[in-house]
Design a protein that fits this description.
Blueprint lengths: L3 E4 L5 H12 L3 E6 L2 H13 L3 E6 L5 H14 L3 E6 L16 H22 L3 E10 L15 H20 L6 E5 L17 H12 L10 E3 L2 E2 L3
Parallel strand pairs: 1-2, 1-4, 2-3, 4-5, 5-6, 6-7
Antiparallel strand pairs: 7-8
Helix pairs in contact: 1-6, 3-4, 4-5
This protein binds NADP nicotinamide-adenine-dinucleotide phosphate (NAP).
């Protein structure tokens, strides 16, 4: 079944690779990014591969930009089957919760957690029944794994995104919209760095699976490598 799939922050990294893999499978991909030039380049790359791709400019940290994106999307007269909340930031300076200024935490939460929630709320009217929401989270957001040593504000933002995932999965049960979170593992991207253990192909594997083959009944869960992991 051909699906319409919106992916935030898909001009590079895991988001781009997810768009690439889903495009190759024949789905209609709406690539979204905050920078017009980068978006155009990414869309053109996948069009060269004969994928059905459109672009949608959206800065998920800016409510006005999300509003503009939904207004633009409304004109297209299509409905979304899958929304992948992939866009996120991690500051290099994010090293110590006690020592760093509050701006780092506030900006990180505004993008990674509140931004993703705002995108979901804004695009819900354009989502089909039995559609899917996939939140790109991180093992860093886990309340079970050991804590410490890296990017505390980023990790807290993913814990909040996980909590949002659980709450929305419950609220959207009656509408048959599934909401799940994914940890892609440690992936070689601008965010993950060159020493990371995985390539983007592996990082995109679980969001691609959740967007396509995974059962619609799976909701309110946290996955890595297509397997359940504890919150
Ligand atoms: N790489 C890893 O090891 C790893 C591990 C666990 C989880 N993750 C998660 O996987 C997802 C993808 O990460 P990645 O490694 O591919 O990161 P990346 O290479 O840094 O890509 C992040 C993407 O998000 C976009 N973005 C950032 N802020 C945005 C905003 N306000 N509005 C719209 N787009 C925005 C970036 O756009 P610009 O190009 O304009 O900056 C870029 O397209 C993220 O949610 C990340 O937290 C990654």
């Amino acid at each position: 079944m051909k699906r319409v799939i919106l992916i935030t922050g898909s001009n590079k990294g895991i988001g781009f690779e997810t768009a690439k893999q889903l495009g190759k499978l024949g789905h209609h991909i709406i690539m979204s990014a905050r920078n017009e030039n980068k978006l155009e380049q990414a869309v053109n790359k996948l069009r060269l591969e004969k994928s059905e791709v459109d672009g949608l400019l959206m800065d998920i940290s800016d409510e006005k930009s999300i509003d503009r994106a939904t207004s633009e999307f409304a004109k297209r007269n299509i409905k979304i089957d899958v929304l992948i909340n992939n866009a996120a930031i991690m500051y290099h300076e994010d090293k110590s919760m006690l020592q760093e200024n509050n701006e780092i935490l506030i900006n990180t939460l505004t993008t990674n957690s509140i931004g993703s929630l705002r995108v979901i709320k804004a695009f819900l009217p354009y989502m089909k029944s039995k559609s899917r929401i996939i939140n790109m989270s991180s093992g860093g957001g886990s309340m079970t794994d050991s804590v410490g040593g890296w990017a505390p504000a980023y990790c807290v933002s993913k814990t909040l995104l996980n909590a949002i995932t659980r709450q929305l999965s419950s609220e959207l049960l009656s509408e048959n919209i599934s909401v799940n979170a994914v940890c892609p593992g440690w992936v070689r991207t601008d965010m993950g760095g060159a020493s990371a253990s995985r390539g983007v192909e592996k990082g995109a594997e679980t969001p691609v699976w959740l967007a396509t083959e995974a059962s619609q009944e799976l909701t309110g869960k946290f996955f890595r490598d297509k397997k359940l992991i504890p919150w």
